[in-house]
Each structure stands twice: as C-alpha cells, then as structure tokens.
C-alpha cells in the first residue's frame, strides 16, 4: 500500500497500517429498547459514544481507520448483562475530523478520560483493539483511577519495536513521517488497492476484508496520517512497571499466512515483560481481527476477563 520499505515487510506493514477496521458482517439484530443515551450529556470533537444495555460498564475502543461497528456483535452479546459504551474516534469511518495534522492518540485518550468522568462511570472495564488497545493502556497509565481493568486485543505497547529491538520512538520518526506522507499522497485508486492488499494480511474472513476497505476509504486522510504517526512513535513500555490496573493482552497467531505462534509469543512476552501480573492469551488460527476470525473463542475470553 505504501512504499518499498513496508512492502518488504508484509506482516509488519499489515500490523502497522491495518491497526483496526470494522465489519458490517458483525452486525446482529438487537431490540431498539436496549439502546439508551449516555448517562450524562457529553460532547467532544475527538470521539462520540453510543451506549446500549445495562449492568457493569464496558468501554469498547476501536483502532486505526475503524468504526465502532467493529465491536457491534460483541456489544450486542454483552448488552443483556452489561452497559456497553461503543466509542467512535473522530476522523475514522466518516466521523468528522477538524484537527489537521495535529496529534491524534494523546488527545483521544484525554477525551476518553473526560467521558468516563462526565458519564459518572466507576472504574469501567476497557477493551481496545490494536490502536484502541494502546489507547486503553495509556488511559490506565495516565488516569488509573478511571479504569477498572484493560484488555488489549492484538496490540503492543510499542508497535515500531516490530522493526527490531534497537528501535526507539526517535529512530522510528522518519518511517512514521514516511507512512503519514504515503497516506496523504496516494490517489484514491492506489489507496483502495493498498487497503485491499493489506486486508489480506489482517483477517482471514473475506467479508471483513471487504468491509475494512470501506471503512478505511470513509476515513479522513489527515486523521489517518496523524494517527499512524502517533502510533509508530508512541512507546508506553516505560510506564508498564508501575501500572496497578489489571491487564489482559490477547494476541493472534496463524500458521497459515499470519504470525507464527512462536514469533507471536516472543513478541508479546517481551513487550509486556515489565507489566506486573499481565495475563497473556494467544488465539490460534486468527489474524489481527481476532473478533472476526475466532468470534466464539474471543467471546469466551471476554467473559472470563469481565468475570475475573
């Protein structure tokens, strides 16, 4: 999708540039009576939130280029027993973006913290996919009093460490700028073709591959460029050792075209090594979108996480 550097590393390219999208295939019917507004009015130019169900609070945070619909099936499954807060990040999947090439991730994290406070939530569980998982870790590090527990879904504390253990936020900056420029400069046809190619490495499900392209094409290019630049240069590993929030890190392995299990184990164990009490769970026969490739296994993990 982007340049020769990234084309030479297909799995890395897929992980960095397909940080999240959604699939209408996940959408399942639910009674309109289950939908309810947020507990208190909340307005932000960084995100919006849809609330369904009742019970203990769960925030579902999507990732790069994604709609909140990526979580729809799981949200509707949880709604009979939980109050689910479906986050939509500004700039993605048609949500307006008004911040040009300014920072993306850190302001979104602050908006999440503001939402938790405004809605009067008492230490909700936060589940984030990919970039959303990174955001959830940042939220727990910076506002530990507002988070009860975190599940990161196929998300690493420092994405650019996939280039090698010697990489730092500073040394990743040129490649982050290059990635952002590629997003901004690609014509529509090339951008769509690149997204379609990337989708193959991110998910096994054909319907989800199609859907992720649609959501990416509906995203604001400046927002995507700002987000990928932030993700590639944000390293939250230094803050892991002092975290007190329980964290589950769920990650994918796929011997048939995805990340081999041994490689995934090494990467996740290494990056989360300094986090006290972290629970690492590998899901085999899945690529980046675990909720799409292995929905049954994923649902069972979420239930254990919320009951723990």
Task: Provide keyphrases for this structure.
Rossmann fold; alpha/beta; 308 residues; eight-stranded mixed beta sheet; disordered N terminus; single chain
Write up this protein.
This protein is 42% helix and 14% strand. It has helices spanning 4-7, 10-17, 72-78, 105-118, 131-142, 169-185, 188-202, 206-217, 221-233, 261-271, 290-293, 295-307; strands at 35-36, 47-53, 57-61, 83-89, 125-129, 149-153, 247-253, 279-284. It contains twelve helices and eight strands. It has a single domain, classed as Alpha/Beta hydrolase fold, catalytic domain (Rossmann fold, 3-Layer(aba) Sandwich). Helix 4 (105-118) crosses helix 5 (131-142) and helix 7 packs antiparallel against helix 8 (206-217). An eight-stranded mixed beta sheet has the order 1-2-4-3-5-6-7-8, sandwiched between helices. 52% of the residues are buried. It is globular, with a radius of gyration of 18 Å. The model is unreliable at 1-39 (pLDDT under 50). The chain is of the alpha/beta class. Strand 3, helix 3 (72-78) and strand 4 (83-89) form a beta-alpha-beta unit.
Note the beta-strand portion: 5-15%
Q: How many alpha or pi helices? A: 12
CATH architecture: 3-Layer(aba) Sandwich
Which structural category do the helix and sheet elements fall into? Answer: alpha/beta
Broad shape: globular
What quaternary form is this?
Answer: single chain
Number of domains: 1
Unreliable sequence segments? 1-39
**Average residue pLDDT:** 88
Structural Rg: 18 Å
CATH C-level category: Alpha Beta
The rounded distance between the terminal residues' Cα atoms is 41 Å
């Amino acid at each position: 999708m982007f340049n020769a550097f990234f084309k030479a590393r297909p799995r890395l390219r897929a992980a960095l540039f397909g940080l999240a999208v959604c699939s209408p295939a996940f959408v399942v019917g639910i009674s309109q009576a289950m939908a309810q507004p947020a507990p208190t009015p909340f307005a932000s130019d960084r995100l919006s939130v849809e609330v369904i169900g009742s019970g203990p609070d769960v925030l579902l945070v999507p990732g790069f280029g994604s709609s909140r619909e990526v979580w729809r099936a799981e949200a509707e499954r949880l709604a009979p027993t939980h109050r689910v807060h479906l986050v939509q990040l500004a700039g993605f999947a048609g949500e307006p973006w008004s911040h040009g090439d300014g920072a993306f991730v850190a302001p979104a994290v602050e908006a999440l913290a503001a939402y938790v406070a405004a809605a009067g939530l008492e230490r909700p569980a936060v589940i984030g996919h990919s970039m959303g998982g990174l955001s959830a870790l940042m939220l727990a590090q910076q506002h530990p009093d507002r988070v009860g527990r975190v599940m990161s879904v196929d998300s690493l504390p420092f994405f650019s460490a996939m280039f090698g253990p010697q990489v730092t936020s500073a040394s990743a900056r040129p490649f982050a700028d290059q990635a952002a420029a590629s997003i901004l400069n690609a014509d529509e046809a090339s951008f769509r073709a690149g997204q379609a190619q990337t989708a193959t490495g991110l998910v096994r499900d054909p319907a989800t591959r199609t859907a992720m392209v649609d959501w990416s094409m509906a995203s604001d290019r400046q927002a995507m460029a700002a987000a990928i630049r932030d993700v590639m240069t944000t390293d939250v590993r230094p803050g892991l050792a002092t975290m007190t929030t329980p964290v589950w890190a769920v990650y994918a392995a796929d011997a048939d075209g995805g990340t081999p299990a041994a490689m995934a184990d090494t990467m996740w164990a290494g990056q989360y090594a300094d986090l006290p009490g972290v629970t690492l769970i590998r899901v085999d026969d899945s690529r980046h979108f675990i909720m799409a490739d292995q929905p049954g296994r994923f649902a069972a993990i979420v239930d254990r996480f919320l009951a723990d």
